[in-house]
Amino acid sequence: MTMRRTGPEGLGWIGEGLDRPECVLCTAAGDTYVSHRTGLTRIDAGGRTSHRVFGPSPDWMVNGIAIDRDGSFLVANLGRVGGVWRWSSRGGLVPFVTEIEGTPLPGAANFVGLDGQGRAWISISTRMQPRDRAFNRGREDGFVIRVDGTGAHIAAEGFGFTNEAHVDPSGRFLYVNETYARRLVRFAIGADGTLGRRETVTEFGDGAFPDGFAFDTQGHVWVACVVANRLIRVAPSGAQEIVLDDSDPQLDRAADAAWATERFDRALLNLGEARRLGNLASVAFGGPDLSLIHLGSLAATRIATLRSPVAGVAPHHWDIRPDF
């Protein structure tokens, strides 16, 4: 199936006054939960927004979020406090994973996701501090943590700025976006949760730096790309199809040139915020039929929505009512 390519003029919008809604989760109840710069935001089915704040910036910069089976949230903190935390309205905020093998996690906990077996997969973008030092090719010191019944373990390392990591619908593979290596990779998952060899699914160019992603029911991966503000559908073969494009060709060329010569920096990344999509960062399928795409970003104050002709796969939290 070939998608119809569109631009930002064809989008819908939900929510108002959001602050860095980088990660988006949708539920069967029609509610949308997004990361807030220093906490969480809920956009209910009627479009009303409510916020929960954890602490001041720069201590907190909430990035990836996940909904656990008990309705609590797992929260990856890119701020000074660092680590991954559990939060619920009843239980408050408690540490989930703040160190690995006796070493405190660096302030680069990017994402946390849960699989069908209840394991958590945490992406740490880099060991470099500040993390901006890893905003280039060749800085491949990111890693992924697996949290299971035996504790927290480094599952794989050597990533070029580890971003979102999700177990695919079959449960057989862990997919990982490497933002500044500009590729989507995957690993076979063993019976004990250990990962096999790395396989490259696809590599990105033309200003596209992969961030968040989601799976559809036809086995494709929908990837949100910062800087280019582009949504790309990746086939199982690795072939790419641009579905949504809000890019600036001049910025794309500048980003590519800076990346190729290891001069890419935050100032260049932030130029993507000037576009209407505000530095596209994540994608989630929602709506009653799971065919309404929701898009998170680094700088927009609303969530963009786009109707898809292909439904998404229901996430593991789909029927859970979070304790918000």
Low-confidence stretches: none
* Main sheet overview: 4 strands, antiparallel
CATH architecture heading: 6 Propeller
Q: Give me the secondary-structure category.
A: mainly beta
Choose one word for the global shape: globular
Could you explain the architecture of this structure?
- The chain has 324 residues and is mainly beta.
- It is built from two helices and 26 strands.
- It has one domain: Neuraminidase (6 Propeller).
- The model has no long low-confidence stretch (mean pLDDT 96).
Entry summary:
With 324 residues, this protein is mainly beta. It contains two helices and 26 strands.
For this entry, give a set of tags.
5% helix; four-stranded antiparallel beta sheet; Neuraminidase; mainly beta; 324 residues; globular
Secondary-structure blueprint:
Blueprint: E1 12-14, E2 24-26, E3 32-36, E4 39-43, E5 49-53, E6 62-67, E7 73-77, E8 84-88, E9 92-97, E10 99-100, E11 103-104, E12 109-114, E13 120-124, E14 142-148, E15 151-159, E16 162-167, E17 173-178, E18 183-189, E19 195-203, E20 208-215, E21 221-227, E22 230-234, E23 240-245, H1 249-260, H2 266-270, E24 280-286, E25 292-297, E26 303-307
Antiparallel strand pairs: 1-26, 2-3, 3-4, 4-5, 6-7, 7-8, 8-9, 10-11, 12-13, 13-14, 14-15, 16-17, 17-18, 18-19, 20-21, 21-22, 22-23, 24-25, 25-26
